[in-house]
Structure formats: structure tokens, C-alpha cells
Amino acid sequence: MDPNTKLSPTPFTDHEAFFNAASPDVRTRLEAIQERVEQRVPGAERCVSYRMPAFRLGSVFLYFAAFKTHIGIYPPLKEPPELIEELAAFRGAKGNLSFPHREPLPLDLIGRVAEALAKEYGRKA
Fold this sequence. Notes:
- By secondary structure, the protein is α+β, with helices and mostly antiparallel strands.
- It has one domain (15-121): Alpha-Beta Complex (Aspartate Aminotransferase, domain 1), CATH 3.90.1150.
- 35% of the residues lie in helices and 22% in strands.
- The chain contains four helices and five strands; from the N terminus they run H-H-E-E-E-E-H-E-H.
- A five-stranded antiparallel sheet has the order 1-2-3-4-5.
- A hairpin with a 1-residue loop joins strand 2 (52-57) and strand 3.
- Helix 2 packs across helix 4.
- The chain is globular.
- The N and C termini lie far apart (36 Å).
């Protein structure tokens, strides 16, 4: 995202509104994450929560957003241990994931994170 670009202080109504506030290169990255989540978690519904694009299966299980230097994915994953170990390079102090804009997105890894978060936090209505 262009460092001079400011995201709107008003809440976004959908994923596209959030994506449109980003630079074209960051928008492409956000769209790739959205597509991967939808491929890996059938039935996941797009929503906006905490002013970020999110997905839910009964309840919200994944949030993602673009920042000046990275894309963040929330909430922290608690299991499985093997996946958490694989995510070590991307985990912050609180366990949230951070994918720098200067590096390629590990989309397969992000897809597996989405599946694990859906299993952990999502629930069928």
C-alpha cells in the first residue's frame, strides 16, 4: 500500500470497499487471500468485522487487512502444533500473522491457516 494512502475512517461495508482503498498491488494480494480462503473453506461467507474483511461459518473465524508494510491475518491460531511451527517466521508477539508486502504470499500456507481457523473458531449455524 502506498505509505501516503490512508484507509477511510468510516467502516467498510464489504470486502471490495476495503480492497478499493488499497493500492493496485496490495489489492491483488488481498484478492488472492480472499480467493484462497473461499477455495479452502467451502461455505465461508464474506463479511466485515472490526472494520476488516472477514469470513464466517456461523461465527467469524478469520480477519485480514492491509497495513503500510504487511497484510495481517487474525486471530492467532492455537493448533495444530505442526502448522504453528511452520508459521513461526510470520507470527508476531501475540501470535497474529504478518505477511510483508515485499515478499511473495505463501498462499498454500494461508489456505491451511484458513482451514485451521475455521475448524477452531467457526461453527455451523
